[in-house]
Structure formats: C-alpha cells, structure tokens
Input
Amino acid sequence: MLTVLESPEKSMAEYVRRHARINFLLCFIDAVGFPAGLSFISTLTILPLFVRQLTDSNMLVGLIPSIGSMGFFLPQIFVANYVERLPKKRNYVMVLASIERVAILLLAILTVWLSSYQSWLLGGFFFCWIVFNFAMGFNSPAYSAMISKVIPPSRRGRLYGIAGAIGGGFGILSAELSRRLLTGYGFPIGYTYCFLLGFLVLTVSLLPLAIVREPIEPFMARLDRRSQLRSAVSVLRKDKDYRWYVCSQILYAFNEMGAAFYTVYAINRLGASEADVAVFTAILMGTGIVTNPFWGYMADIFGNRKVLIFGTACALAAPVMAIALPALKFFYIVFVLNRLANTGVWLASYNIVMEFAPPRNVPTYSALRSTLMAPLRIVAPILGGFIADHIGYNVVFLISIVMTGIGLTTFFQFQEPRNRT
Output
C-alpha cells in the first residue's frame, strides 16, 4: 500500500518506521540473491576463463571490468535528475533490473548457438555484457534513492553485511556447482548452464522488490542540463569531505586494474586449471560469508569511513602478496585479501554516499561519484592488459600497489559524515 505524504519529514519518517520490517525483509532477499546469482558469472573467475576460451588477448580480458565500470558508472549522471523527480523509484528499478536479467539469458542462448563461431560468440558476449552493465548503471541512482527512503541509516550496514554473508554461503554452493559443470561439460555447455543458473537466481530474488512499500514524494521541478551541471559542480566545490572521498574512489581504480588479472596470472604463470578457478570462486564466496557481516556491523557502529580505511589496506596487501608469493598454493591468500577489500570497500562506499547527501539528492551525489570514477575505471583494466601483454603481470601489480597506497592516505583528509554538523 502506497500513501502520498502531505506533511514532509515527520510523515515520511512515520511511514518508513511503520513498514520498516517488511521493507527490510524484501530488500534483504534481493541483497542475498544478487551476489549468489553473480557468482555464476563471476568477473574475477568465470568470465575471464570464458573469454580465454575465445581469445588469447589479455586486453580483451581487461575489457570485462572496463565495460563493467563504463556501463555502471557513466550513465548515472544522465538520469540523476530524472530519478530525483520520480515520486517513487520502485517501478523504474524493476524495469531496468529486468533488462539486466534478460541480457544474461541472451548470453546463455548465444553460448550454445554460436559455439562454433568463436568471433561471433565473443562479439555476442561483449554485447550482452554491455547491456547488462549499462542497465545497472541507469538503475543504480534509483535503487540507491529507494534504499535511502525505506531503510534507516543505522540498518543499512547490517542489511548488506548479513545478506552478503548468506549470499556468499550460496555462492560457495554455486562455485562447487560451477566447478562440476565446467569440468563435467566443458565449453560451451558448462558455461551455458552457469549463465542460465545465474539468470534464474537473479530473477527469482528480484521479485520481492516489486512489493516494497515506498512512500511517494512531492513533485520536484525538472532542471535543464546546464543547471544539473552547475548543481553537481557546486557539490564538489562546497563539500570538501565529499571531494576527498571521491578522490579516494578514483584512485581505487588502479587496485581493480591489478585484481582483474589475478585469475589470468594464476592460469598463465602458475598453471591453474578450471577446477582451481572454481576453488578461487569458492574462496571469494567463503571469505565474503565472514567479512560481510563483520564489515556491516563495523559500518553501523563505527562508521563507513573506518571500514573504507581497513578495506583499502587489505586491497593494498593483495597485489603485494601476488608479487611476494608466486606459487599457486600461496595464491589463495591473494583472493582472500581481495575479497576482504571488495566487501568492505563496496559496502562502505555505497552507504557513505547516502550519508553525505541530503535525502532528496542521493541520486545526484551517487551519480557524481560514479561519473568522476568512470574514466579511470574504464581505462585502467585495458591499460593493465596492455602492460601485462608487453611488460609483465608484476608491473601491473606494482602500479596497483603504489596507487592504492596513495588512495589510502586520502581517507585521513575527511571526517566521518555522521559526525558532521
């Protein structure tokens, strides 16, 4: 049931409080299913291995995270004002999320249909991957705005922390199932089954969001493009803490540049097999089971800034270990550290934007961060692939170490947004 709110903040807060439990449960189901479904199409393990079946180019492997970043981050600024003006965000979220799922289903179909035409299948994969990530990009500001409306700040860390842990548990089962499918059926059938299962899990877990009880906001006037740009620039000019936070997120792209090649490095240099890749996925999911609720409670109690500091420190340690321990039996530590970093940095980065921003401006703040992050997030993995092909993986990891270290220092330049007056 949806109610138009006539008196602003008090009525909104009362409506949210009244439906808090059911909304938490509905969003929780989606937050569990999303990482569980994505484990069947892991960008660190399954998709790099799939692309390596079709090409030897490290640059094309590097395109996987580059397209992910381009699709997710670039479109957000173009829809931020439109999303802010929507009285409710739920229906918009459902339409775009459905497009994401259809792209994965199409990939499963193309994998069987074009398996004998590797160039065509490679093109089909990148087409589906572009659609999937751009749909997420157009959707992200609306989803963030919806969550900021229906989930109180003191429960967001637990929402994504506990859900991430349970999703990680399902992810371990998914990784084992993926291992059996890939070793038992190989290419292309094993991958087709993985993509189909990812589609099914993502689709079923999405359905509860269709009945989220979201309050309707008053109408807000449309801004022209120039006014939108001025508004965004003024945020960066006036909010020094938010400006430093965005700098940290831009520099983190170099850590992801290194992370994009952990699996390929393990295959090409350390002799990892398809079964080892499935084990890597299981390690990623298993580490998430422990770290997601830990980071979630840390964020709710101590603030997202502290989680960002410790998560980035783990991100710095991962490429250090990749260089220091060049043996497959030790390389599992790299994936543990990478997962520690990803869960902490993702959870805190996502939630802290909602605390920097006034409630109605969450889409603009989220989109501004994403747009400024986008160029390096797109270029860094491709640059990493070029360096890996022509110089070596260790140089990629070394660049990742230096830039992540610089990024870590930026967190000491701003204060926790909850402590701001």
